[in-house]
Predict the structure.
Amino acid sequence: MGMMKFAVTPGFEVGGTLFKPEQLALLGSIIGDNAKIELTNFKQLYVEIEEERLEEVKGELTKTGLEIYPVGYVTKSLITCNFCRGAEDAGLDIAQKLNQAIAGITTPSPLKVGYAGCALGTSEPLLKDIGVVKMRDEFDIYIGGEPKSLKPIFAELFVTGVNTEQMMNIVQRVITYFQINGKNKEKFSKFVKRISITELREAIASQD
């Protein structure tokens, strides 16, 4: 049988997305000599193991609190700040709910969503495909960031001053619109440029 790949993250807590020593120790001991581990630029580890051991290994890893996600052309698990102002102020619970709603959705190209609990923006939300910034009790949403260039593209402000429910709804609508209207392998930043932020904003608003 062949090799299969999956993504691993430690989940969210105060201090950010942190692997615990016991989690890394288990990961190293269980995957075997033939496995490969790759560090990605969106705070995930890609693990490649023999297909016949896939479910066994996934099961053991989730027992330690690790989260397992698909790899490839999907929305990546939420890239968050370090919640330096504390879990409640920065919206740790909201970030967890947002991650549950968006991670692992099939998309025309890999999609990165960033979340910052305040205007410090330590998770660099303006360099993500979709960036969510908590401003006191409301949220601003940015779209179309692109870091992989000598001249990075900063995301543009999409909507401002929305509440938690509206933010969750808008982010999911944007992902769905990209699913339906994006071309195969088209980067999200190019998709936004092609259809225009104005058209995307109108399309999302028309779903009300």
